[in-house]
Amino acid sequence: MSTAKLDFIRNYELEIQKEWEETKAFEVDAPENQSNEDAPKYMASFPYPYMNGRLHIGHVFTITKAEFMCQYQRLKGKRVLFPFGFHCTGMPIKVCADKLKNEMAQFGCPPVFPVEETNDDEEKPAAVAKKDDPLAFKSKKSKVQAKTGGAKYQWQIMQSMAIPDEEIPKFADSAYWLNYFPPHCKTDLQTIGMGIDWRRSFITTDVNQYYDSFVRWQFETLRELGKVKYGKRYSIWSTTDNQQCADHERASGEGVQPNNFTLIKLEVLEPVPECLKEVAATGKKIYLVPGTVRPETMYGQTNCWILPTGKYGAFQMKNGEVFICTERSARNMSYQELTEETGKYPCLAKFTGDQLLGAALKAPLAVNKVVYVLPMLSIDENKGTGVVTSVPSDAPDDYAALHDLKQKEPLRKKFGIKDEWVLPFEVVPIIDIPGYSNTAAVKAYQDLNIKSQNDRALLDQAKDVCYLRGFTEGIMIVGEHAGKKVQDVKKAIKDQLIESGQACNYSEPTTPVISRSGDECVVALTDQWYINYGEDDPQWRDQVNKTLESMELFSAETKKRFETAVGWLNQWACSRSFGLGTKLPWDEQFLIESLSDSTIYMAFYTIAHLLHQDFNGKVVGPAGIAATQMTRAVWDHILLDKPYPEGCEISKDTLAVLKREFNYWYPLDLRVSGIDLVQNHLTFFLYNHAAIFAEKMQPKGIRANGFVQLNGAKMSKSSGNFLTLFDAVQQFSADGTRIALADAGDGIEDANFVDKTALTSLFKVHTQVQWVQEMIDMKDKLYSGESNRLQDVIFISEMNRAINKADEAYAKSQFREALHTCFFDLLNVRDHYKLAMAKNENMSCELIFKYIETQAILLFPIIPHFSQKVFSMIGKGSILAARWPESSNIDYLALRTNDYLKSTVSEARNKVGIFLKNKNKGGKTDAKAEKATIYITKNFPKWKQTVLLYLQTIYNDANKSFTKDVSAILEDLKKMDELKPQLSNIMAFVRMIEGELKTEGKQALDTSMPFDEQEIISQNMEYICRALELTSVECQEIADTTGMKGALPAPGKPTFLIQ
């Protein structure tokens, strides 16, 4: 296939990029004598990518969301800053470098690896986080797998990145990674035309001493504020590395956090089951230990659930206690000070769950003095302890399972369950949800018409309702805390159970986590430095919630996820002992982990260009400040507005420049990231800003998006479905790639980058550039008179309507909508303008060039090279100096008339197509349509007018819907005597109007048109004939359609007869 069009576009893209670089187009400083109120600004950032590979289309999908918004804000007249950094903190680079070193030592250089048989087994289904975890997400193929394509050896992974064999040995030194990938990242982003101020870029870790100083200041400040503490805390732990395993140090399980439970000790009473008699004979107390996240509900226990086929053990714990649970959970417990020796969990007996059925238990807090072990078939052995306590008043799953056992005698007989273990136990009301129920699970079960414990989807829905409302609205009605809100006493009840020895803390990974060293991680309770997020510092959490209230989050679902994350997030281990990074200032045996050193670095961007001139911070910047001079007092002065430090080695005037930069650019206007980071990084970002900076410096907006697929499938090198940014630009051009990225999607659902879209967009861009040149060449032939003809008025109005729609879409970060409005829709507007002109008329020169300039400006955020190319062609100079066009002179009646004409032609064209298809049956190909009769009517039948007038009274313009549901609407309409003969037709009519509202809005409720349809059709007969390729068109009005059958015309919706 010829690459002429691609080559043409790439040539001018490269020329434009060179000009931007030479003119330092995107380098911007704070003005000397103006605040950000006097000279409006906009600063956006993207979480700096990890420097262990080249950028792929998934990275740039999110990056473009920030850059699109920045360039839109530039058009709105703001001074714009989009900086970009490179993340190198953590274990991955160090681990990969060490692996490479070991491979060369073992297999030679270049290495000769042993040949192994391939495994053709299908990839296992992705794990799904459980519904009762409010931060749950679907764990997709790990980033490591996606990037490496399943390559086993590090040398092979480097080869998959197109790194020459002779260069690979250099990567055995971790420092080489820090110097290799950041420049490639910069180059890749430049090739797609990113408007980034590269002066402010830096790498993390102590290699850059300026950034290292900044992070040390951050943590010293947090510690002084009481936010960083030392003590026993839970964290994901690699037993092989013997240290915390942070996100970037995992082969799989990114984003997985410790899932904290309260283990309830259900004491086994006499007579003990046969499988436990030997253990009981030793005099040790035996407990079944279900894990719960709702200890406040323990008053309502009616039984305990076990998986009959599950594999369980009796494991020796501290203080002579024996816990009945799965071996997997016992392994976790052994790292949480629940066993005598770390990592050791002696098993005293093994058995299956059915051997425990019918065991009598003493349940803490329960109204029932004795409860029994019963079967539940849906228990997951890989979650919790494999033992589940039952509170059917507030847990829908428990109610469903207990209800099944009570109602189904054959089910009881199947497992040998005696009636006295089940039938006497009734639901115990323990929590009242005002206005809902004091047995929420029962109500949800009944409201959703759940039939059994197998109705998984409905039970999950019921659980969401019960758990959320129970926590946020529930009031205790039993126990010593009766009358108090659940959220106020939840922790107190948990603490009471633990202090009395009736429960203990337990934690495990939400889903399996595999470290890069290959071991399955546990959750360990270890002495470590941690940041005290969550319930132990409610004032801090309240500050974060206050910030969220005023933030622009662009999505109700994003806000909901933040509220959940803030509500459930707790202490976070912030130190580790291996990898790259910044040392804890007061305890240098530890490094600050990779999510904790990346929460407020946006503030560092504001002054980085003055401190150093290279990524590594080795070349001193324009301010002439050495890294050692950046003391804590200096940072306080710059970022916290504290007094100028006594004895400071940096002049006050120099620091005033740094302060000016920070105070001008902060607060951050927009943070763009993947939705998966809400549960950690983005919430940490809010917490740290709330702790350190003044209220006026809190972030103003966060935009989250989903993952991106490639051609409808997950990106994966192993499947060949993978695309780097570099390759995308080579194949589709910068602007072709950018269009496909904008078109991929905007919500938090997974987006889809489509190769075909990128390719066809490349061709459209090329065609549009050629058309602009054609207009320049034939400028003298275009109409030069006053632009007041009907089609001129419509064209002007269409352009202005597009300006308004695009403005709204960009402001809401709906970039796909903006793209379609500015590119595809405006192309159609232009084509219609040309086609609708009479034979002896031509398009207006004034309007065509206004259109060319307007479209170039509107498209600049998405396809800047095209916009600059067009601006250069028409002599407008730099697109960077352009401002958002003003809209005026919108003739809405003319627009509606034109919309009517276009829809009429479109519908008639469909009818012509059907006519020709029927005529050409049997192999014929010569049939032609010659004439069309268009039937119109000015009025609806009387009964439809009555319905429409009623519907106008309950229409909500904000969401284009009715304020009542269809059943309520029908009840109202049935009361109208004049409608009774039409009751059988009303439902269908209302449903039709309801559908039309979504596309037409309030216009769908009009009882007549604001223009004469027959006149519009008559005036445009020539255009209609030309568009439909017919010899003649006739228009006939039907005064009254009452009693007529078949397809009937309605106001604004004609019907057609094709001949």
TrEMBL record:
Residue span(s) of domain Methionyl/Valyl/Leucyl/Isoleucyl-tRNA synthetase anticodon-binding: 794-914
Domain of life of the source: Eukaryota
GO molecular function: aminoacyl-tRNA deacylase activity; ATP binding; leucine-tRNA ligase activity
EC id: 6.1.1.4
Pfam families attached to this UniProt entry: Anticodon_1, RBD_LARS1, tRNA-synt_1
UniProt keyword annotations, A-Z: Aminoacyl-tRNA synthetase, ATP-binding, Ligase, Nucleotide-binding, Protein biosynthesis
The keyword Aminoacyl-tRNA synthetase is annotated on this UniProt entry: yes
Record's keyword annotation contains Ligase: yes
Alphabetical GO biological process terms: leucyl-tRNA aminoacylation
Domain Leucine--tRNA ligase RagD-binding: 936-1009
Domain Aminoacyl-tRNA synthetase class Ia: residue ranges: 16-99, 180-752
NCBIfam families documented for this protein: leuS_arch (TIGR00395)
Alphabetized PANTHER family for the sequence: LEUCINE--TRNA LIGASE, CYTOPLASMIC, LEUCYL-TRNA SYNTHETASE
Family, per entry: Belongs to the class-I aminoacyl-tRNA synthetase family.
Name assigned to this protein: leucine--tRNA ligase
